[in-house]
UniProtKB/TrEMBL annotation:
<keyword id="KW-0597">Phosphoprotein</keyword>
<feature type="domain" description="Response regulatory">
    <location>
        <begin position="6"/>
        <end position="120"/>
    </location>
</feature>
<dbReference type="InterPro" id="IPR011006">
    <property type="entry name" value="CheY-like_superfamily"/>
</dbReference>
<dbReference type="InterPro" id="IPR001789">
    <property type="entry name" value="Sig_transdc_resp-reg_receiver"/>
</dbReference>
<feature type="modified residue" description="4-aspartylphosphate">
    <location>
        <position position="55"/>
    </location>
</feature>
<dbReference type="InterPro" id="IPR050595">
    <property type="entry name" value="Bact_response_regulator"/>
</dbReference>
<protein>
    <submittedName>
        <fullName>Response regulator</fullName>
    </submittedName>
</protein>
<dbReference type="Pfam" id="PF00072">
    <property type="entry name" value="Response_reg"/>
</dbReference>
<dbReference type="GO" id="GO:0000160">
    <property type="term" value="P:phosphorelay signal transduction system"/>
</dbReference>
Length: 124
């Protein structure tokens, strides 16, 4: 299966980056991984990303702050959030308008892949 979409994954957990990179590449996606929100924002990632998967809790800038920074740049990338924390953080729903998805770790990969596909179809 070949998908021309570029998926960026931002997470401070190297094992998550490796596993999502492997999973998404096996479905034909091009994958870029970043170990922090700053690394993503300081790269050309925002301009080259069709769908973003981001951890919420990260040192420095959290995923919600990165989402807000992208919105301030007028970069509206379909975003799926993943987290190791149970339940939504209190500030999440007040600050994130339209996330494509929210997944607690460990997450169901079929549900994640289906969510990515829906997000990419809406982006076209």
């Amino acid at each position: 299966m070949f998908n021309s979409a570029i998926i960026s994954v931002v997470d401070d957990d190297e094992l998550i980056l490796i596993s999502l990179d492997s999973l998404l590449r096996s479905y034909g996606y091009t994958v870029n991984t970043y170990n922090s929100a700053y690394a993503f924002l300081d790269s050309c990632g925002p301009e080259q990303t069709d769908c973003l998967i981001s951890d919420i809790q990260m040192p420095g800038m959290c995923g919600v702050q990165m989402y807000e920074a992208l919105a301030a740049r007028n970069a509206h990338i379909p975003t799926l959030f993943i987290t190791g924390m149970p339940g939504l953080p209190p500030q999440f729903s007040a600050r994130v308008r339209k996330p494509e998805g929210y997944f607690s770790k460990p997450f169901n990969t079929d549900a994640l892949l289906a969510c990515i596909e829906r997000a990419l179809k809406r982006r076209i």
